[in-house]
Description:
The chain is of the alpha/beta class. It has helices at residues 12-23, 41-54, 78-81, 103-113, 127-135, 164-168, 170-177, 188-191, 198-205, 210-226, 240-247, 281-284, 302-312, and strands at 2-8, 27-34, 62-64, 118-122, 143-149, 183-186, 252-261, 271-273, 292-300. Strands 3-2-1-4-5-6-9-7-8 form a nine-stranded mixed sheet, sandwiched between helices. Helix 1 (12-23) runs antiparallel to helix 10, helix 5 packs across helix 7 and helix 9 (198-205) packs across helix 10. The two termini are 27 Å apart. The structure holds beta-D-ribofuranose and calcium ion. The site of beta-D-ribofuranose has 15 residues, from helix 1 and helix 6.
Amino acid sequence: AIPVILDVDTGVDDAMAILFALAHPGINVLGISCVAGNASLERVVENTLRILDVAEAPHIPVAAGARRPLLEPPRSAAHVHGESGLGTLQLPPTDRKAEPISSIDLMHRLIQASPHPVTLIGLAPQTNLALLLRQYPDVVDNIERIVFMGGSTTVGNATAVAEFNVWHDPEAAAIVLDSGVPTFMYGLDVFNQVSIPERVALALVQSDSTVAHVVGQLLNNRIALGSGRNAEYTGLIGDAGALCALVDPRGLTTRMLPLRVQLSGYGRGQTLVDKRTHPGEDIMHGLAGEWEAAEVALDVDVDRYARLFLDTLGLGSAL
Ligand code: BDR
Ligand code: CA
């Protein structure tokens, strides 16, 4: 199984990603690092611990990291994920506790202790990942790669051109891309596509099984949250798609592309991608500043990932 650390801002779709990662036999979740994003840091930690209860997961260390972006002020995403961060889903309080150390230190320890290189899965603003790479630069020696949900080569969601996770902390994303660690971008190009039919989500809500019921509610949140200005969110599995990408890369069309984060002006937080077949003179001669190479997901087999998502959670019969 692939050893991973999840960095999350749970978050309706982060919750589905955590359930998927814990259920998939090809993924070994070493720990979970929390960051402010979809909700406040305290809510994110609490939501994450409650979701571990739903999964009946054995002890998985969870720790709290940054409560705000590196430069930007803290912001709320309550209009997408609700005040609680989990939309309308209500989960019972948990006896689980977060580790008494920062998630930066937790990630450092887990990476150092792992006999195999660790894959970092970024499902949130990348503040924690940037702090880890800055504070403990030696970790790069035992990181396989960073797979992140974020960015877009086309449309944005936080702004017309910027995706939320990168927009929330653009400097952090730039630090991650510049770290020398191979990066894989699961952006809105694919994120906005993988959805579960509404009739399946409604059937799951009616189920007696706790996991089915919770996943149904989370999917329904996306449907409910999709009415109105966030119509593109209808029934998406969201962040869980980045874990599908980890275990089933053949479901995607990807390309190695020059990539950078726009740091100023209206485009702040936009991921700029050079899709020309041959890099232009501007890039070749360094006239356009620093570009990094990243593997970028451009298209996805939606049915394949929808099935993978449901099958992994033992819910395939609902499809
Ligand atoms: C990303 O932002 C959050 O709303 C989701 O959890 C996802 O990580 C989508 O832009
Ligand atoms: Ca997220």
